[in-house]
Structure formats: C-alpha cells, structure tokens
Design goal:
By secondary structure, the chain is of the alpha/beta class. It has 11 helices and 12 strands. It has a 12-stranded parallel beta sheet with strand order 1-2-3-4-5-6-7-8-9-10-11-12, with helices on one face. The longest helix is centred in the first third of the chain and has 16 residues.
C-alpha cells in the first residue's frame, strides 16, 4: 500500500462522496489509506445510491469496526454486486457482522475477503450465511490462515449453495483440514472453480480429497499447486482422475512427486479424455517417469495446453517428449522453460 498524506486521504474521501452523490456505478478506493474514521464519512452516502454495483476497498485499514459500520449500510443497499475488502486488517468479529447481513442480501455476487485474519469459525459462519440465503457466486478467502479447522467449518459447502467459484488457497489446511473439506465437497454440485493451492496438503489429505473427486461432478477447474502431495498422494489422486469427466483444467505444479507419481498419473491420463490444460511444472521426475508420460501424451486427444517448466529435464530425457509430440496432433501450447535443455532452439522439441 502506497503511503498517502492525510491531505491526500481527505481529498480521496471528498471525491468518493461526490461520486456517490452523482449515483456512480463503480467506486474504486483501493490503496487509499482509509480507516474507520474515513469510512464513517463515506458510508451514509451509500444508502441513497441505488446505482452502485462495484465497491473496491482493497488494501486499506478499516479493521473490524470499519467492516461492522459498512455492514450496516450494505444491508440498506440492493444494487451492490461486487465487494472487495481484501487486505483490510479485520478479523472474525468483522466477518461475523458481515455474515449476518450477507445472509439476507440478494445483490452481492462477488465477495473478496482475502488476506485478512479470519479464524475457522469466522469462515464457517460466513459460508453458512451464504448457504442460507445469499446469492454470492464468487468467494475469495485466500490467505486468511486460520490456525485449526473442524468438521463443522465446511458444512455450508454442502448442497445447496450458490457458490460456483471458491478460493481457499494459502490457508494452512494441512491434512486434517483437507479431510474435513473433502467430506463437504463430495456433497457439492455447484462449485465449478476451486483453488486449494499452498495449503500444506500431504498424503492423508489428498487420499480423502481423491475419494471426494470420485463423487463430485461439478468441478471443472482445480488448482492444487504448491502442496505436499508426493508420490503416494499422486497415486490416490490418479485413481480418482481415471473416472473423473468434469475437470478440464488441472494445476499440480510444485507438489513434490517424482517418477512413482508420474507413472500412476500417466496411467490415469490414458483413461481420461476431459483434461484440456495440465500444469506439472516444478516437480522432480527423471527419464523413467517422463518416458511413461510421453507414451501417454502421444496418444492423448484432449490436452491442448501442457506445462513442464522447471522440472530439471535434460537433453536425454527431453527426447522422450520429442518423439511423443511428433505423434500428437492435439497439443497447441507446450512450455518447457527453465529446464536443463542445452539448446531449446535446436529442434529437439
């Protein structure tokens, strides 16, 4: 957040009030150094504005009191559809107050609360409120980092829920949290885009999630990057991918698996004809794993985009891919950057 003088902050508040009086449709106050005091001046002008659809307060410092104040005025507004409160130094107290309003709000469709300090109960209260009566379709809870999850935290994910795009990345799920989440997502039929990246998920968590994926038929875009799946986790996940026909975009970047995991996944891809975009970058497999995958990709008719960056692939191992690609007529984009290929322009690939 850039540093603004108090004079600049006051000027931004005055402009915001003027714009609200003019019935603006969008109000961008991101990174303006606004605190609760400034919000007190702005909020009364939200009530009569029935044209406002987008309010961006990203990266300010309104805190719990600011969110509570804003919630009161949001309850009187029926036009707001996009609300961004990311990076605003609030916690569970503010979220619980907001959840009370969200429960009866039919206008907000996109809610971003990322990078605030929301505990697992706060997440539970919010998701449950959305399930009960909200119309929110996109929910971003990235980087809230609660300390411990319980089974009840994710009950609101079960059907019915309006959410179709859910970002829970960087929240320290670990295996225990992932097991609880998996039980809920297996009973969901609305979420199509799911981000669980950077959540410290290991074998036990992935084993539970793989069973959920066998039952879930709605997720089309899945991001599991930057976890700790390993070869064992990949074996479990691969068995689920064999029969899954909904996922079209899959990100497994940076998951600490090697040849064992790659062999299992290669066998699964033979039976899967739905994945279009696949990212396997930043994993560590040698010629054995790559040879297995190359044989699979040669016959694959669905994958259009394939990413293998930073996998320590050398010239010798690359020749497996070279032969496979010569027989593949579907692939349109292939990324091999940051590997150990001596001369990428040589025609080897």
């Amino acid at each position: 957040m850039s540093f603004l003088t108090q004079e600049e902050i006051d000027e931004a508040v005055e402009k915001a009030i003027i714009n609200l009086k003019r019935m603006c449709e969008r109000l961008n106050l991101a990174s303006h150094g606004l605190g609760c005091l400034e919000l007190k001046k702005i909020c009364p002008h939200l009530d009569p504005n029935n044209e406002l659809t987008e309010l961006d307060l990203n990266e300010n410092k309104i805190g719990d009191e600011g969110v509570k104040l804003l919630s009161v005025h949001i309850s009187k507004n029926s036009s707001l559809s996009n609300l961004n409160l990311a990076k605003n130094n609030f916690g569970t107290g503010g979220v619980i107050c907001l959840a009370t309003v969200i429960e009866n709000n039919k206008s907000i469709k996109n809610l971003n609360l990322s990078n605030n300090s929301i505990c697992s109960y706060g997440i539970e209260r919010l998701i449950s409120a959305i399930q009960k009566g909200s119309s929110i379709k996109e929910l971003n809870l990235n980087g809230c980092k609660p300390t411990k999850f319980e089974k009840s935290n994710f009950n609101g994910i079960k059907d019915p829920t309006p959410i179709i795009d859910l970002d829970l990345s960087t929240n320290r799920f670990a295996d225990e949290g992932m097991i609880f989440f998996a039980q809920a997502i297996s009973q969901n039929s609305s979420i199509t885009k799911l981000d669980l990246s950077d959540n410290q998920i290991g074998f036990d968590g992935m084993k539970a999630f793989a069973e959920a994926i066998k039952q879930n038929k709605s997720i089309t875009k899945l991001d599991l990057s930057s976890n700790r799946i390993g070869d064992g986790g990949m074996e479990c996940f691969s068995k689920a991918i064999e029969s899954n026909r909904s996922i079209v975009k899959l990100n497994l970047r940076d998951n600490q698996f090697g040849d064992g995991g790659m062999k299992c996944f290669s066998e699964a891809i033979k039976l899967n004809n739905s994945i279009i975009t696949l990212d396997l970058s930043e994993n560590r497999f040698s010629g054995d794993g790559l040879e297995y995958f190359a044989k699979t990709i040669k016959e694959n008719k669905s994958i259009i985009q394939l990413y293998f960056s930073d996998c320590q692939i050398g010239d010798f191992d690359a020749h497996y891919l070279s032969e496979a690609l010569s027989g593949n007529k579907t692939l349109e984009e292939f990324n091999l950057t940051q590997n150990n290929i001596s001369n990428p322009e040589s025609g080897l690939l």
